[in-house]
Amino acid sequence: MSDGAVEVREVVVRYGATTAVDGVSLTVPRGRVLALLGHNGAGKTSLLQVCEGFRPADGGECRVLGLDPVRDHDELMPRLGIMLQSGGVYPWATAGEILRLFASFSANPLNPDMLMDRLGLRKFERTRFRRLSGGEQQRLSLAIALVGRPELVFLDEPTAGMDTEARHTTWQLINELRDHGVSVLLTTHLLDEAERLADDVVIMRAGRVAATGTPAELTAAAGIDLLEVRADAGLKPESVHFKAVETSPGEYAVSGALDAAVIAEVLTWFATSGAQVTAVNSRRRTLEDVYLALTKDNRAGVGR
């Protein structure tokens, strides 16, 4: 294996007769953010549990910061920050008590007061965890994951339930982690969040890897799905390679497999028709477009 922060090779996870993770391989390079995407049931949570050392794989190999996450669990845990959706803390303790308790586990923690201020938790310092809203619990869970100055952070739906301001603060913190050399493996159902934060993306479908690459690579490979041309009104562009509709006088929406050759064919058609083209705009597919195309028809319940 290489020297990635997380290295997964052909990992398999089974629950009885159900295969939740079916031969998945991925690498989180050190100092980068990898977004793990997939519908509920795609196998993301099961894969995270293997990486975090909470369950052994049924096949394949996983190394985290160069260690076996199950065999070397006690040695590895002080170097990790783990944000769980369920919180995993005593519900009757206050936010301040919980964060300071987790800070006490670290030899060189971040200042808990600073984290509470950054994440808007100061006014909830004396509020019991069970009294916090879902978004406030998420912010506290994020603070818990970061307070020990981890080398690697696992973030499971980090902005779920957060308001817009808290969401942007979380994005800023994740970018700061990367800038300081911390590696991040996150899951999210928010595709704009993944496209904005991730250096690398792995899309899972039914327990397997459906696609991997940078956001730019994935969207570039998907190509352009709409070309808008402004020209003389009343034309009827047509070809076996593209379809054009005049959406309003002089405004044409062109669709099809719009690679460079087809776009050139579109513009040539207008030119040979004697039309004066005054504007051309293209819409490249987003990460959400790619994700939906790759995961459609996925059956929930295949993985966990």
UniProtKB/TrEMBL annotation:
CDD domains for the chain: ABC_DR_subfamily_A
Signal peptide span: none
Subcellular location: Cell membrane
Superkingdom of the organism of origin: Bacteria
GO molecular function annotation: ATP binding; ATP hydrolysis activity
Gene3D superfamilies cross-referenced by the UniProt entry: P-loop containing nucleotide triphosphate hydrolases
ABC transporter domain mapped to chain residues: 6-231
Any Gene Ontology biological process: response to antibiotic
UniProt protein name: ABC transporter ATP-binding protein
